[in-house]
Request: fold
Amino acid sequence: MNEILLLVEDDNNQRFLYQQELNEIGYNVIVSSTAQEALEKLKSINVDLVIMDICMPGKDGIEALSDILEYDKSIPVIINSAYGTYKDNFLTWSAEAYIVKSSDLSELKNTIRNVLDNKHADI
Amino acid sequence: MESSMEKGNNIKSTKARTYVKRMMAINKIINVITSDINIDGVVFAISHEIAKLINCGKLSICIKNRYFDKLNLFIPDENNPQKIISKQIYLSATNGPGRVFITRQILIITDVCKDNDARMEYEQVLSSKIRSAVIFPLISKGKLIGTMNIGSSMPQFYKKNDIKIVKKIINQIAVAIENASLYTEVKQLTQQLQKTVSERNAEIEKKYYQLSLLNKVGHAMQGTLELDRVLHLILTCVTAGGAIGFNRAILLLRRDNDYLQGVMGVGPASGEEAGRIWERLSRENWKIDDFFSHFDTYPTKQSSMNDIAKTIKIPLKNKSDFVVMSVMEKRSFLISGGLTDARVHPAIKQKLMSNEFVIVPLLSHDKVLGIIIADNLFSGRHIDKDSMQLLNMFANQAGLAVERADAYEKLTRKIKEAHNAYNALKKTQNKLVRSERLATIGKMAAHVAHEIRNPLTTIGGFAHTMLKYPQDKEKVEKNAKIIYEEVYRLERILQNVLDFTKPGSPVFQLGYINNVINETIELLEDEINETSTNLKISFHQELPRILFDAEQIKQAFINILKNAVDSIKKSIKFNPRKTNDNIIEVKTSIKKDYIVIAVCDTGIGMSQFVIEHLFNPFYTTKQGGSGLGLAITHKIIEEHGGYIEVESNVGSGSVFFIYLPLKTEQIV
Reply:
């Protein structure tokens, strides 16, 4: 069974890019354009991992990260932002990983793989 | 018979003639003696006229003084009859006048040798050659005022007739004598009074002079705020001749409440120097006013007393020390055993070497600020009560001046401190502003990086896909389209950054703000209507024309108005039921020197965090927003000399106030 990733991204083109690329390597990618929508989806779908942008209208990624962890601590979250500066914000430290967006998606892909493998090892 | 008759008649007429002659003489005497009111003149007239009347020998007049214990004796000088000698004799029961005072009768001493009391008086006491005398009581208005004495070196010299003649005029003589003596007394009293008055006047004048000096000194001191100058002025005054006039003076001020420190001294250090200075002062004719106006060049300023004074330090411990007593009891002391008295502090003994000096406390509001010690070492002049009192009065004024100068000095120090603190603060602030600016630049760079990285990620990602599947025409087409979009987005971002960092400078023209606002609202009217928002416009109808760049103000205003519309849109999105009561209100008014454009919306509102970052370039809460709209608005309004205020509450809406100066002329 394919692992389910929840991608939270407000930029349409990027959402499309990530979805396409991650689908290609075998993940089942569901998407949300806002944090609120993502939280709703988390409650109805068993998600293996969340990839989250920070800068979004309405609730931002950092706030959403807290909400997710409050809902279920076992869901790993990877922050994927065009901002490098939020690495300094300790609120992002509870995420499994912090990736600065790049056209080269290999870092994102590797990180997803590692996080998921660790998660299975823990169990 | 006839001849005897004749003879008798002759005798009678001779007698009658003599009588008439005498009467005339008496009349003349009376005229003469009453014509003078001076006692000397009266006595002279009496002796002169009586000598014409009888052979009277020596004549003298005794007048009792007002205390009845002495007699004033007036005797014409033998060598110079015009001159009257006056002396005092005691009134006794045995001397002639004394006996007359007791009996109030004429005393006739026919032969001094046969009268024991008279012999005692004339021979032994007066060593006089008088052998016979007649002493007449002088009774005026029933009061015995004195005696008239006639005496001769011959015994039994006076005949009964002589006495009878004199008796006839003695009352007039008494009146004349009394008048004259009264006159003399009054004259003397007047003279005495005049003397007293002039003495008093001189004293008053002296006091007045001293007081006016004090007043002058007081003014000079109160007008001086420099402590050093005040102190020097004080000591100069204490030592300046013509004022208080001490030879030397030193000033000790209280420090830390537990000791007195000598701060200044004036006066010569040696007798030689004193002589030199006084000589110079008198040669150059220094007056007290000169001391005030030129006291900086006063010859004792650089005196060695100053150095001596500064070495004196007296702890306020020993309660039997004069200096300590003066401070504690707030009173002055005149010390006359300065070199020996154990209550004189050794430092004073050694440094001043003075036996007589004064210690005067320097008082201000009942607080002892210090003391002045002054002496007359070189002139040796005794320090009297007057100069003590003057010094005391002076010290009171000086105390006030010292306190004022001291307060002024403290104030100056505080101001300097405050000034330094201000400068330090300003430096820090400048640093802060610089680092704040750097931080802003940093933030801006981060935002720019973010804005650029997003499209780059997309472009790179899709280009990568295209490379992977170059044959998949559909994919390539779609990805190329996306890349094209993103490149366009990048270009827009680049343009924004350039626009923001290099905006065109405003072109100011006079115009009506209301018109510009109206035109701008028209641009957004459709969009506002779509959100079924109630747009209220209330313009101040009498706004004056002001200078502004219409295009820029339009741009600034549209950004704010668009934010209001977006905010309403968002609130509808979050709460779709809330559709009917959305309001945007645009209002213009005048507040002080500004035209105020207020834009009020009932949208979602902003948190404090958002308000604080609102005008930062590239800060945005909108999807796809550049974060430059309000930053540009802010910049435009600032360039117009105005400012923007924001009030907002999350959930209830926001108000933006744009303040534009009521400027009609451009300051170049």
